[in-house]
């Protein structure tokens, strides 16, 4: 088992290994004096892992209740959140009790936000069961929900007290969901770790899973420790995401996040090369990594239209748009440009 400690305003450990779920009761006891645990999960993950988790918690003499909601991004909203508050109140969870978020990023963001806000904040443990959740969303304390106006527009920073990454859970994850994590892992290599990138480029991800998960988590740890509240360096994690979000939005979320981010990385590196501020070999490397992992590298859409949406991004604070570029593999940096330059810049990256 590997252990990584995240030194945020409230430090916590991330445990990475096999067979951790069946011992969750013991791990929870080590970090919390709670009497009752509310396990929040979705219907697919519940069918696979809820029993193991609740059995282990009960064996550790904890009182346990659980709440299951329908899987999928559509559940990450107030329509699921409000009944979760009702459930926590009904179950009389107190400020010294605990929430366990068992599932992918949707469960982690939603249950994490419930933990951040119920009784003005109670402890929670992340138990990520998707590749993306293990290497990205369970680390760093961003929690939140979508609104009809956009994704992740309501949220809070609330660090978990423990993250349990049981690699065995990835054996049941459908390939298409696994690819979402692959996109993020290629991103991590590109921005901070050339060796990780080469493993991703080889396409042998499952063969190197403990290394890939631990390395991605450690990259995110360092970025989050230097900028917990996302005011500067944390933006590096957005490599490929500005264009990726534009594509996601344009496709009405019919193409999954990791694939959109992958295409976003290909587009932005080609645009940088065309503008003379990026080495063309970086673009070629991204394309190879995506192709070797069975991911799309381009998409025939109207990028002019797609870019308009991200120019109206509600979270952008000024007329300056910051995107992430790559100096050399493993060395990403923040590149600021006037917002009006962004669309012509991107269009250079999609010229045939
Ligand atoms: P998800 O949570 O929707 O999970 C994808 C699918 O896999 C779901 O159908 C789920 O039921 C299923 N699943 C989960 N674990 C499984 C397992 N072990 N075996 C079989 N099926 C399993 O999606 P995701 O990709 O994990 O997360 C996406 C969400 O994460 C988005 O809402 C995104 O905004 C958020 N996110 C948050 C952060 C953050 O920092 N908080 C970072 C990145 C992404
Ligand atoms: N996924 C981006 C972040 O955590 O900041």
Distance between the ends: 47 Å
* CATH hierarchy, class of the largest domain: Mainly Alpha
CATH architecture of the largest domain: Up-down Bundle
Q: Beta fraction of the residues?
A: 15-25%
How many helix segments?
Answer: 13
Radius of gyration: 20 Å
Q: What are the distinct ligands in this entry?
A: nicotinamide-adenine-dinucleotide, glycine
The average pLDDT value, as a whole number, equals 95
Tally of discrete structural domains: 2
Q: What is CATH's topology name of the largest domain?
A: Dehydroquinate synthase-like, alpha domain
Going across the major beta sheet, what is the strand order?
Answer: 1-2-9-6-5-3-4
What is the total tally of β strands?
11
Structural class label:
alpha/beta
Largest sheet report = 7 strands, mixed
Mass-distribution shape: globular
Low-confidence stretches: none
Helix content: 40-55%
Quaternary state of this entry equals single chain
CATH homologous superfamily assignment of the largest domain: Dehydroquinate synthase-like - alpha domain
* Order of H and E elements: EEHEHEHEHEHEEEHHHHHHHEEH
What does this structure look like?
- The mean pLDDT is 95.
- The strands form 3 sheets. A 7-stranded mixed sheet has the order 1-2-9-6-5-3-4, sandwiched between helices. A two-stranded antiparallel sheet has the order 7-8.
- Strand 10 (320-328) and strand 11 form a beta hairpin.
- The protein has 2 domains: 2-172, Rossmann fold (3-Layer(aba) Sandwich); 175-347, Up-down Bundle (Dehydroquinate synthase-like, alpha domain).
- The chain has helices at residues 24-31, 43-59, 78-90, 105-117, 131-137, 175-192, 194-202, 209-226, 241-250, 257-274, 280-292, 303-311, 339-348; strands at 2-6, 12-17, 36-42, 63-69, 98-103, 123-128, 142-147, 150-157, 162-166, 320-328, 331-338.
- The protein has 13 helices and 11 strands.
- With 352 residues, the protein is α/β, with parallel strands linked by helices.
- Nicotinamide-adenine-dinucleotide binds at residues 42, 44-45, 48, 71-73, 76, 103-107, 109, 129-130, 132-133, 136-137, 140, 142, 151-152, 169, 172-173, 177, 180.
């Amino acid at each position: 088992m590997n252990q990584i400690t995240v030194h945020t305003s409230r430090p916590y450990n991330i445990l990475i290994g096999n067979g951790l779920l069946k011992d969750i009761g013991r791990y929870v006891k080590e970090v919390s004096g709670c009497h009752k645990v509310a396990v929040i999960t979705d219907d697919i993950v519940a069918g696979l892992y809820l029993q193991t988790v609740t059995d282990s918690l009960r064996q550790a003499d904890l009182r346990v209740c659980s709440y299951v909601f329908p899987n999928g991004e559509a559940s990450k909203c107030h329509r699921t959140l409000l009944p979760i508050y009702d459930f926590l109140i009904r179950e009389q969870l107190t400020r010294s009790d605990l929430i366990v978020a068992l599932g992918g990023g949707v469960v982690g963001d939603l249950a994490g936000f419930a933990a951040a806000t119920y009784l003005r904040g109670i402890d929670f443990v992340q138990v990520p069961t998707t590749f993306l959740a293990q290497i990205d969303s369970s680390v760093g304390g961003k929690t939140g929900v979508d609104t009809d106006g956009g994704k992740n527009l309501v949220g809070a920073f609330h660090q978990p007290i423990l993250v349990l990454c049981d690699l065995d859970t990835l054996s049941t994850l459908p390939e298409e969901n696994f690819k979402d994590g692959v996109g993020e892992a290629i991103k991590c290599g590109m921005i901070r770790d050339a060796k990780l990138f080469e493993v991703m480029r080889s396409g042998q991800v499952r063969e190197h899973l403990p290394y890939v998960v631990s390395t991605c988590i450690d990259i995110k740890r360092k970025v989050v420790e230097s900028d917990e509240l996302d005011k500067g360096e944390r933006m590096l994690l957005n490599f490929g995401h500005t264009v990726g979000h534009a594509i996601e939005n344009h496709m009405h979320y019919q193409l999954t996040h990791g694939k959109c981010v992958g295409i976003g990385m290909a587009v932005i590196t080609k645009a940088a090369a065309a503008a003379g501020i990026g080495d063309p070999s970086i673009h070629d490397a991204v394309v190879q990594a995506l192709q070797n992992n069975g991911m799309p590298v381009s998409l025939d859409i109207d990028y002019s239209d797609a870019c308009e949406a991200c120019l109206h991004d509600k979270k952008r604070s000024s007329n300056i748009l910051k995107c992430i570029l790559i100096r050399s593999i493993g060395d990403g940096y923040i590149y600021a440009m006037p917002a009006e330059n962004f669309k012509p810049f991107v269009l250079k990256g999609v010229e045939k």
